[in-house]
Amino acid sequence: MSHKLIDLVGITKSYNNNIILDDMNLYIRENEFLTLLGPSGCGKTTTLRLIGGFETPDKGTIIFDGSDITALPPNKRQLNTVFQKYALFPHMDISDNIAFGLKIKNKSQAYIQDKIKYALKLVNLDGYERRMPDSLSGGQQQRIAIARAIVNEPKVLLLDEPLGALDLKLRQDMQYELIRLKNELGITFIYVTHDQEEALTMSDTIVVMNQGYIQQIGSPEDIYNEPENAFVADFIGDSNIIDSIMVQDELVQILGAKFACVDKGFGTNKPVDVVIRPEDVKLVKPEFGTIEGEVRHLIFKGVHYEMEVHANGFDWLVHSTKMFPVGEKVGITISPSNIQIMHKPASQDEEAASIEE
Q: How many Cα atoms sit within 13 Å of 2 on the Cβ side?
């Protein structure tokens, strides 16, 4: 594994007595694509700004490659930020925009020209040196903003919702571009987004945040398939989240019916949250189901049908390649390994984990 490049230790930050981050601990490895994901107001942009040096923590330390950089100004840190608003200089052409940081560092003209060419090639905008920013599309401006950050050879690229202003098709193209860039450059990317799909597509590691607390850190697969609490499950993709009772190891009572599951160690007759992904709810003939219900809504989504099935007083969200018409009586079965059991939040802090913003 590559070594720890950035270490945030016990970081607390508040504005006007409003705590944004509360004793946060997080480390980022070299060459990692790490995404801070969460709803607005969860503290993800504040975290990025602290790493970039645009904010100072009230408490805690920021270590970069073994050195304490907590009080270091942004221009002394080996990192560059790409903002959502591009922040290109409108009165300068593209080459001057890209060269801005290098001129401040008094690099030679030949060095600067080489770097501009290299950066434009890297973001697939060869030959754009003399164009003005306002003649470029949003996607092209964003690429120039990335090129400008790259020429400074930062160890870390901070990206604050950089694709937020782009339309869907362009965003998807840029996601692949960013992954390619990261692999080619071998630098660390720290990315902020509230878009779950973007996080799942691009990241090596996702940090899910809510109300200043880290809810879960893991690979996209872990976060999607093994969410640690109901907030994470609900925030990453669609889920059925149901109040249930853990009867005993490997047996859970959901809406009055007993289902086999694979979880152990929750005790007997304990209240739990159960999370079931819509694609894991199997619809069968009523007599073969663990519980029975009726299809209330049906939408064709291209790859699958999305149905709402009312069963035992709960509206189940179901994704299936098989269509069951509205009004049809169906049975619901779920394979034991697809039932995720979670502790109900106990303390105030844990409660923050499960409250929707």
A: 14
Helix (H, G, I), strand (E, B) or coil at 205: strand
pTM over 0.85: no
Whether the CB-CB separation of 194 and 35 falls below 8 Å is answered with: no
Which pLDDT tens digit goes with each residue over 66-113? Answer: 999 999 998 889 888 887 776 789 999 999 999 988 888 888 899 999
Domain 4-225 has CATH 3.40.50.300: yes
The CATH code of the domain at 239-354 is 2.40.50.140
Encoded tokens for 185: 């450059």
Q: Do the Cβ atoms of 299 and 305 come closer than 8 Å?
A: yes
Each residue of 123-145: pLDDT tens digit? 889 999 999 999 998 888 888 98
Distance CA 275, CA 278 (A): 10
Q: Check: CB of residue 295 under 8 Å from CB of residue 326.
A: yes
Instruction: Give the residue extent of every domain in the chain.
Output: 4-225, 239-354
What CA–CA distance (Å, rounded) separates 208 from 227? 10
Residue that the structure tokens 């120039």 belong to: 144
User: Could you tell me if 72 and 52 are in contact, meaning their C-beta atoms sit under 8 angstroms apart?
Assistant: no
| Cα dihedral 243→249→250→251 (10° resolution) | -50
How does DSSP assign 70-94, residue by residue?
A: TT--GGGSSEEEE-TT----TTS-H
